[in-house]
Design a protein that fits this description.
The complex is a heterodimer of chains A (about 300) and B (about 425). In chain A, about 30% of the residues lie in helices and about 15% in strands. With about 300 residues, chain A is α/β, with parallel strands linked by helices. A 6-stranded mixed β-sheet of chain A has the order 3-2-1-4-6-5, with helices on both faces. In chain A, helix 2 (about 45-60) links the parallel strand 1 and strand 2 (about 70-75). In chain A, helix 1 (about 15-35) packs across helix 2 (about 45-60), helix 2 crosses helix 6 (about 200-210) and helix 6 runs antiparallel to helix 7 (about 270-280). Chain A is globular. Helices cover about 20% and strands about 35% of the residues of chain B. Chain B starts with a helix and ends with a strand. Chain B has helices at about 1-10, 25-35, 45-55, 65, 70-75, 105-115, 130-140, 160-180, 210-220, 225, 405-410, and strands at about 15-20, 85-90, 90-100, 120-125, 145-155, 185-190, 230-240, 255, 260-265, 270, 275-285, 290, 290-295, 300-305, 315, 325-335, 345-350, 355-365, 375, 385-400, 410-415, 420-429. With about 425 residues, chain B is an alpha+beta fold. In chain B, the strands form 4 sheets. Chain B has a 6-stranded mixed β-sheet with strand order 2-3-1-4-5-6, sandwiched between helices. In chain B, strands 7-8-14-11-10-15 form a 6-stranded antiparallel barrel. The longest helix of chain B is centred in the middle third of the chain and has 17 residues, at about 160-180. The radius of gyration of chain B is 24 Å and the shape is globular. The chains are: A alpha/beta (about 300), B alpha+beta (about 425). At the A-B interface, helix 1, helix 2, helix 6 and helix 7 of A face helix 1, helix 3, helix 5, strand 2 and strand 3 of B.
Chain lengths: ~300, ~425
């Protein structure tokens, strides 16, 4: 069966791990675009979704994206990230849909227990409402399997029932690159094209592609307090508690979620290369260093995902 | 670490592999060792495992807690599903698809194996080849994994005996030859002690071969796909919106992935099933055009002639063309709790084409313990492997799975539940 290919006449590029991961993600994006009726791409302005946008350019240019961008805004995002989100969508000339938790609160869909409660878990409600409003049958997200142990088990095409729920015990087997994209009305898929990327891969790719990212990913001076081994950033939403000492230290964010539950790490890394080097030798996972809400129990991510979380 | 962080920060190759072996063979310990010694485990993950091990009343750290990601798995102390783990060395990035070893999870091993280029099969040096070994090697072979590494583990429990290793190596080599495994390797290790996993050990001076990690770094996998004939399933057509840019008015790019082989500008290609031929005018990627693309790159092909091409078509070149067939034989691994029902129609997804299919006959079912073929079963149930005959609604461009995984594989979908119910491997057209 093997045919002898005359390689003398063609320059055969040797593919790196980034090339292979990129090719896989482009293939997945094109499967979504061609098999799903109304997909959307979740874009938050964070590094993983920035990579997704570059992959979408590679999958579909010179044509436009076959899906709008969708952001679920808690209203507690870092201003630098929101500014970046709007700018990037405009540069690409693509449609950006924003749905906010404040809208859901006004409609009575979300009732906060108290005003300064972390809004992170409530995003699921606004997201599911947006999916219903627009009739999306696939939401493309930037989640990675290396982030968290429940995610390590999740499919690339991950089925959600009509309640938006994930059933980890009854996932569709996923073989080769043959994705089963079928859903009935009211159900949808979450699709994770960069499932197999690690935090290091993301930064190497951002560096290679020279993608711009919100400034808070780079080292900057910020007032913080030290709480439970994490650096808690102070803002109009988060104040120092009694007995805590406010320090201003050079930090950068490894992940840019809700301001009330996302912590930076101490860092002097001010360039892509420095971030790549730091990521290559870090001994703490991305979520471990930065997410207060993942520490509550062994299964906090799995429980949130079952309820419809990203 | 100085030199090492520079190495870790650069671009390297990629290897996907699976590990097979039961819990008792030390699979979790081996993965834990590989991850730990190559920095693939982080401190907060380790401390979480430590806390959980203590809570569960386990004296020593239980590394399986690292891979058992679901609440139900931790509650029941079993691995249910495939977990993916990642680590890198200065030479390669690795993706481990870790699946449970027990026979009721055959479907999970099949799933994990479908994307792997290499399998590490663990053997307990005290027990040698057991039923599980045969089953794991059989599945690895059936799923077309080109490279097999037999890791003879627990050498510390047989006093690092050269005689034991050589006897097992001889038995395994005979077994591999009978099973049709072309590329097999043998390495004596102790996952618990770390002998020959990452670093060479002094405890087996008689072994001068590579360590397990050295093998994983060195075995050539890149050419497995590029040396095959070109197979380019069309995923869709890229056409810029009218009026956007006049220079792009005629742009028509056939988007897809080079599943195997090489495609270069100027190549004469054939489109299946129509059989129309044309030449490659350009290979488009965002930002730059390529002279040639190789598997597994995702690109868009621009062709010389305007011919009717759409999703589901297959672009090929050269003499070794796939067979267009409406009836063919295939090996199936049944994945669903609901058994195969020959009276029903299923959906079959092959490359980027989905068609209706009937299963017209079940030739045999493989006894997963003895690997004997039981002729003429009336059904296939979950975890069963067997050979069936299929008849599809429209002709498919098929290669035998042995010759090409991309054009020889398919899945079956139950139209009423939308579940993926079987994995199929074409035997002949």
């Amino acid at each position: 069966m093997n045919q002898v290919v005359d390689l003398a006449t063609v320059a055969r590029p040797k593919l790196s791990h980034l090339d292979v991961l990129e090719a896989e993600a482009i293939h997945i994006l094109r499967e979504v675009a061609n098999e799903c009726q109304r997909p959307a791409l979740l874009f938050s302005g964070g590094k993983d979704s920035i990579v997704l946008l570059r992959l979408a350019e590679k999958a579909f240019r010179p044509a436009g994206f076959p899906f709008p961008l969708l952001h679920i805004d808690t209203g507690h995002n870092f201003p630098e990230v929101i500014e970046f989100r709007d700018r990037r969508a405009a540069e690409l000339g693509e449609t950006l849909i924003v749905r906010t938790l404040d809208q859901s609160i006004a409609k009575g869909r979300i009732r906060l227990k108290h005003a300064d409660e972390t809004r992170n878990p409530y995003q699921s409600i606004t997201l599911l409402d947006a999916i219903e409003e627009f009739g999306f049958d696939a939401c493309i997200g930037g989640a990675r399997r290396d982030e968290e142990k429940a995610r390590a088990k999740e499919r690339i095409f991950s089925f959600r029932d009509e309640f938006g729920q994930w059933d980890p015990k009854d996932q569709r087997p996923e073989l080769w690159d043959l994705y089963n994209t079928r859903v009935n009305a009211g159900e949808h898929m979450r699709v994770f094209p960069i499932s197999n990327w690690t935090e290091l891969d993301i930064w190497q790719y951002i560096a290679r592609e020279e993608l711009s990212v919100p400034s808070i990913y780079f080292s900057h001076a910020r007032p913080i307090v030290r709480r439970n081994g994490q650096l808690v950033p102070l803002s109009e939403l988060v104040a120092a508690r009694e007995g805590e000492t406010i320090e201003t230290v050079p930090v950068r964010f490894r992940t840019v979620g809700d301001m009330t539950c996302t912590c930076p790490v101490e860092s002097l890394a001010a360039s892509y290369e420095e971030i790549v080097r730091e990521t290559a030798v870090t001994r703490i996972t991305e979520r471990g260093a930065t997410r207060m809400d993942d520490q509550t129990s062994e299964a906090s991510m799995e429980l949130r995902k079952k309820e419809g979380y990203f | 670490m100085g030199a090492n962080d520079t190495f870790l920060a650069r671009e390297v190759g990629l290897l996907r592999f699976i590990t097979a072996g039961s819990v008792d063979d030390g699979k979790s310990t081996l993965i834990g060792r590989l991850l730990f010694d190559s920095k693939g485990i982080f401190e907060d993950q380790l401390s979480a495992i430590e806390r959980a091990s203590l809570r569960r009343g386990k004296g020593e750290m239980d590394l399986s807690l690292l891979t058992d990601g679901l609440q139900a798995e931790r509650e029941q102390g079993i691995t249910i599903d495939v977990a993916y783990r990642y680590f890198s060395t200065p030479r390669r990035k690795f993706i481990i698809a870790d699946s449970p070893g027990h026979e009721q999870y055959t479907r999970n091993m099949v799933t994990a194996a479908s994307t792997a280029s290499l399998a590490v099969i663990l053997i307990d040096a005290r027990n040698g080849i057991v039923t599980q070994t045969r089953r794991h090697a059989y599945i690895a072979r059936l799923l077309g994994i080109p490279h097999l590494v037999f890791a003879i583990n627990k050498m510390d429990l047989v006093d690092y005996s050269e005689a034991v290793f050589h006897r097992l190596q001889r038995e395994l080599a005979e077994f591999a030859e009978r099973a049709g495994i072309a590329d097999a390797y043998y390495v004596p290790i102790s996952a618990l002690q770390g002998d020959n996993v990452v670093d060479q050990t002094e405890r087996m001076p008689w072994y001068d071969g590579p360590t397990l990690l050295e093998l994983l770094e060195d075995i050539e996998v890149e050419r497995d796909l590029t040396e095959l004939p070109l197979r380019f399933p069309v995923q869709g057509v890229l056409r810029p919106a009218a009026g956007a840019d006049r220079s792009l008015a005629d742009f028509r790019g056939y988007a897809g992935r080079v599943e195997s082989g090489v495609v270069a500008v100027g190549d004469k290609v054939t489109v299946l099933p129509s059989g129309a031929t044309t030449r490659v005018k350009a290979i488009h990627t965002h930002g730059r055009n390529l002279e040639a693309a190789v598997a597994p790159q995702s690109v868009a092909l621009l062709l010389e002639d305007q011919i009717d091409i759409s999703r589901g078509d297959l672009i090929v070149k050269g003499d070794a063309q796939p067979t267009l067939a409406r009836e063919f034989a295939a090996n199936l691994c049944w994945l669903s709790a609901t058994p195969l029902d020959p009276a029903r129609k299923y959906l079959l997804k092959h490359t980027t084409r989905t068609v209706k299919t009937l299963i017209t006959g079940i030739d045999h079912r493989v006894d997963i313990h003895t690997l004997a073929k039981e002729p003429g079963p009336d059904r296939l149930a979950v975890n069963d492997i067997g050979r069936v005959r299929l008849k599809v609604q429209h002709p498919l461009a098929l290669d035998p799975y042995e010759a090409n995984r991309a054009t020889g594989s398919f899945i079956l979908i139950d139209e009423t539940t939308n579940n993926t119910v079987a994995a199929g491997m074409v035997e002949h057209g």
